[in-house]
Design the sequence.
């Protein structure tokens, strides 16, 4: 009798233990896989189909979409604030200087309108951006990852809050600080910087490295001098319109080339070069450069899930916007 009691007590304890672990696993900031399984079962399939239509026609859109998700998450958390338009009384993130080349809003809008037709008022703009980003990256040979969903949309977007973004001239101390402030690790920093394996940059984002690094008409000594010559041919002083490919060999393909470039001192921004200033980030750069990005795809998938959890609104917080550019 006593052993039976003891056994059932033990059993009960195990159940409580399992429930506790399940609770922890679910406590992913309130997000979970397949959040829309019951309320909008086709949400992810529809998102993928529409994203595919756009990316197959314009593969270069994957880069600004990925960057849009990054900006969304770093400013006020992944709450779709980057999608909101300015109003009479408020200048939104979109219209801050740091928006520079953000584009691809039409993809988000197309998905949103399809989902509003199918299941009105259910799927948030913040989730749509996270899903579209994942789909777009995977369509240009990048990794695929499961996106936990359940984000809700914020009601505010403030241009001045783009100061939370790391600047392209940031040194390693500043970069680590900006990422830590969002709950991201040094590994997340070096892994997510690998997003610069796709896309383009305006000359103005790195011009000082070419022409006036310390205010004496000099160049950044951490930049490969041969590459300086090449970049100076593309970018005249004061050029605000020319776009330069960040990974010139394959700027439309999501591969591990970024680390080869950075190791050769050909990263475009000081923030890219800064990854060689710290032992942990430097050893990651070298590892990927020497092994053709052996673990980059897997690491990127993990870090994107981490980034996608920054400051999310869940439960009853925020709202589900009807149109991604406006609060309800
Ligand atoms: C580590 C700190 C980072 C800094 C300082 C930084 C800075 C920049 C800058 C200045 C540009 C060029 C903007 C322009 O002149 O048009 C750029 C482009 C880009 N960034 Fe970053 N970034 C960082 C991290 C990230 C992260 C975490 C992601 C995504 C996970 C990302 C994705 C991109 C992409 C895809 C582009 C190309 C956009 C396009 O082709 O339109 N960046 N970044
Ligand atoms: C929101 O603003 C963008 C420009 O930033 C504009 O192109 C777009 O038409 C606006 N959206 C709506 C629905 O007014
Ligand atoms: C970005 O901001 C500039 C001015 O700060 C604005 O003219 C431009 O329309 C904005 N871009 C987008 C896509 O909203
Ligand atoms: C890094 O940048 C910060 C702020 O931009 C500056 O205060 C600091 O002195 C810099 N650190 C190094 C080691 O250059
Ligand atoms: C270089 O920087 C210095 C100091 O900021 C400034 O006085 C000078 O005008 C700049 N030169 C050019 C060519 O931009």
Sequence:
């Amino acid at each position: 009798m006593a052993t039976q009691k003891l056994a059932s007590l033990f059993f009960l304890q195990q159940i409580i233990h399992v429930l506790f672990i399940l609770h922890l696993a679910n406590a992913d900031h309130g997000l979970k896989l397949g959040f829309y399984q019951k309320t909008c079962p086709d949400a992810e399939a529809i998102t993928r189909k529409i994203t595919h239509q756009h990316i197959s026609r314009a593969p270069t859109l994957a880069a600004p979409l990925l960057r849009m998700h990054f900006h969304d998450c770093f400013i006020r958390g992944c709450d779709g604030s980057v999608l909101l338009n300015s109003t009479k009384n408020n200048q939104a993130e979109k219209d801050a200087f740091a928006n520079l080349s953000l584009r691809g809003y039409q993809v988000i809008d197309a998905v949103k309108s399809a989902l509003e037709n199918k299941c009105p008022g259910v799927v948030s703009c913040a989730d749509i951006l996270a899903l579209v980003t994942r789909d777009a990256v995977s369509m240009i040979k990048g990794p695929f990852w499961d996106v936990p969903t359940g984000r809700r949309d914020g009601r505010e977007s403030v241009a001045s809050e783009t100061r939370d973004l790391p600047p392209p001239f940031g040194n390693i101390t500043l970069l680590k600080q900006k990422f830590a402030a969002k709950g991201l690790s040094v590994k997340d920093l070096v892994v997510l910087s690998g997003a610069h394996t796709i896309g383009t940059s305006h000359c103005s984002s790195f011009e000082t490295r070419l022409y006036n690094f310390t205010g004496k008409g000099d160049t950044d000594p951490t930049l490969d001098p041969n590459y300086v010559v090449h970049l100076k041919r593309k970018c005249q002083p004061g050029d605000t319109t020319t776009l330069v490919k960040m990974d010139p060999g394959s700027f439309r393909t999501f591969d591990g080339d970024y680390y080869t470039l950075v190791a050769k001192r050909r990263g475009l921004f000081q923030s890219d070069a800064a990854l060689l200033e710290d032992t942990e980030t430097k050893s990651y750069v070298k590892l990927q450069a020497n092994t053709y990005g052996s673990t980059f795809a897997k690491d990127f998938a993990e870090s994107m899930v981490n980034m996608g959890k920054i400051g999310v609104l869940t439960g009853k917080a925020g709202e589900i916007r009807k149109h991604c550019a406006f609060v309800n």
In short: The pocket of protoporphyrin IX containing FE (ligand 1) is lined by residues 63-64, 66-67, 70, 100-101, 166-168, 170, 175, 192-193, 195-196, 198-202, 205, 269, 271 (CB under 6 Å). The chain is about 45% helix and 0% strand. The longest helix spans residues 2-26. The CA atoms of residues 75 and 163 lie 8 Å apart.
